[in-house]
Amino acid sequence: MTPVVQGRGLEVECDSAEFYFNAFDARYKSDPDSAAYFIDIAIARAEGCNDGERQVRYLLEKAFLISEGEKSETYSQVSNVALALALAHGDSLTLARTYRKFGTLHNEFSKFDSAIYMYNNALKYISPGRDSLELIKVLTRRGITYDSQGVYDKAISDYLKALLICEDLNFYEEISGLYNNIAIVYKKQDDLPAAINYYHKARELAMELENEESMAICNVNIGLLEKDLGNYAISDSLFHSSLAYFDKSYFDYGIALVLHNLGELKRKEGNNQEALDYYQRSQKYASARSFKQIEANNSFSMARLYVDERKNSLALRHAHHSLHLATELNMKQEQSEANKILSEIYEISGRPGLALQYYKAYHQQEDSLYNEKKSAIINQLKTIYESTQKDAEISLLKKEQALQETELAASIKQRRFLVILSIALIVIFGLLAFMYTKTRRYNERLKWKREEISKQKLKIEAKQQELILKNKDLVKLSQEKDDLINIVAHDLRSPLNQVKGLLSILKMEVNADKKPETQLYFNNIDLAIDTLRGRINKILDVELINADKMSLKLEQVNPGIVLENVQSIFKGQAASKGIKINNLCNGFDKTMKADYNFTIQIMENLVSNAIKFSKSGEDITLKISETSGHIRLHVKDQGPGITKDDRARLFKKYSRLSAKPTANEKSIGLGLAIVKKYVESMGGEVWCESNIGKGSEFIVQFAKA
């Protein structure tokens, strides 16, 4: 039982550690003192359950918390403990994460070289195929550090490497962040069109992801760039779009920020009253929510505006408020600007002593800022120089190594040449002997093959002669078959016509008999005769087509009249099945080049088929469409549709389809074959478009007359 109790105890301890870590995470921003208390408990509990990975993670989070208080020595001690633990107990991925977070901490304190060193170490422990997300994070963080150093080419390079991985893995949120980072670099290089391009990419991706918050943030960034480019109308539209979203989502910081930006925009446009209104609205949100940075910027902007309007007392009040907040927040650039405008206001007000006092403060801060910028530039140049020097040293070493390798390779090559030459001579003599033997055998085999080919040639010629004779017999039989079909069809049609006439006389003679059964019998006999005669006519039509004996009369044909006639022919037959024929081409007055009678037969066949395969309550639609040089006649039904396999043999003679007529109507499979022959003989085209369960549409196309 003891191991179980110990194991359970460890599990509870680790669960407790995670509980306290979550409590720390919830208070990280709002209550740093409470957060510090909870993270210390979480670290102790993680140590109690011997979970090295958690200890490392918690220690690094504590280091980040300490770093925000700018206690650099303490944060460094804590992060060093985390790194030592990771090296002792962590796997490769834990080490990579530890080095990355260590690098981020160094970056926070502007220790850029140390940060780069940490990121490079992190990359050593990453397996690209397995730890792709961690690789993306390291490359992104290293790119941010290069950006801070001003080494923009390396920053862009890291961002693009991370971007390629994200695109392969469809990490859309990370892609959006990288687009923004790339845009920031281009903006710092004053390449505003490139920056706008990447901000637009980020916004398009946010639209695809339906992430309204990201879209609104992108619109603010793009709006600021458009303002700098002088595109005030575009900037105004983007700011208002973001404002609408922030207002809807109760994002007060966003509202205050956008209102301030709108004030800046209106001041650039020369509309001071509207600018003042936006500043004041922004100030209400900023002061109510303690957004002190925005409050300081609003106060400075209003002071500047009141100076322009010679309202010195109001300008003085807002300038002092801006200076107070900038000093509290250690905003050095804003302090400098506030001192400068205060000096201007006191000079205008005729108070030279105070004007001089604030002017001196302004110059002191400008000198301080200049020295900081100069130091940063020197550090950047130093980094670039050291990087370039290292690259040059590496290049020189590579050249020396290449030279040594070349000399060694030349020596080895000479020795190899002598060995290869000796071997080659032996091989050549061996090959010559082998080739002589092989050639002699090949010639003997070739002679035998030629004799075999001669024998086979004689056999093939005999077979070919036999096939010619058989082909003549087949042609003769085919002709006899066609003649027989014509004779039989004609011989059958004459008696049928006589039976049809006799039936008509018989119907008149027994017309007095009003029994429904009698009339039904006559109708069935009449229908059977018409069906048989129709099939005989189709057989004769096919033979006529095959024999190329069709007599075409191409003329100007109005397709609207054709479809009206076909509709009237089949209206009764369709109504008997509960089917409605809709004609959508009434009044069509253009003509096409075709034979009128053949066109009628074509459309009759297509409409007849549509009726066969339609159920009661379904519609058949007739319509006409045009292209630049053709007119198309459409017959569309709501039947079962035609399968892909059936469409492949749709226009072949005697083909049978898988779909069956809805009223068990009979068919010999010649109708569509005749349609295709008729259409093509008139220089037209016919095809079918169909989806299973959604009906079929037959389209016949002729040239315009």
Note down, in words, how this protein is organized.
There is one protein chain. With 705 residues, this protein is mainly α. Among the domains are: 1-90; 555-703, Heat Shock Protein 90 (2-Layer Sandwich), CATH 3.30.565. It contains 23 helices and seven strands. The strands form two sheets. A five-stranded mixed sheet has the order 2-4-5-7-6. A two-stranded antiparallel ribbon has the order 1-3. Helix 8 runs antiparallel to helix 9. The model is unreliable at 1-12 and 380-385 (pLDDT under 50).
Provide the descriptors you would attach to this structure in a database record.
single chain, 705 residues, mainly alpha, Heat Shock Protein 90, five-stranded mixed sheet, two-stranded antiparallel sheet, 23 helices, 6% strand, extended, disordered N terminus
The amount of beta strand, in percent, is 5-15%
CATH superfamily of the domain at 555-703: Histidine kinase-like ATPase, C-terminal domain
Looking at the structure, the CATH topology of the domain at 555-703 is Heat Shock Protein 90
- Poorly predicted segments: 1-12, 380-385
Q: How far do the termini sit from each other?
A: 100 Å
The largest pleated sheet is described as:
5 strands, mixed
Radius of gyration (Å) = 46 Å
List the helices and strands and how they pair.
Elements: H1 2-27, H2 32-48, H3 52-68, H4 72-89, H5 92-108, H6 112-124, H7 132-149, H8 152-169, H9 172-188, H10 192-208, H11 212-228, H12 232-248, H13 252-268, H14 272-288, H15 292-308, H16 312-328, H17 332-348, H18 352-509, H19 516-546, E1 555-557, H20 559-576, E2 580-583, E3 592-594, H21 596-612, E4 619-626, E5 630-636, H22 644-648, H23 671-681, E6 685-690, E7 696-703
Parallel strand pairs: 2-4
Antiparallel strand pairs: 1-3, 4-5, 5-7, 6-7
Helix pairs in contact: 1-2, 2-3, 3-4, 3-5, 4-5, 5-6, 5-7, 6-7, 7-8, 7-9, 8-9, 9-10, 10-11, 11-12, 11-13, 12-13, 13-14, 13-15, 14-15, 15-16, 15-17, 16-17, 17-18, 18-19, 19-23, 20-21, 21-23
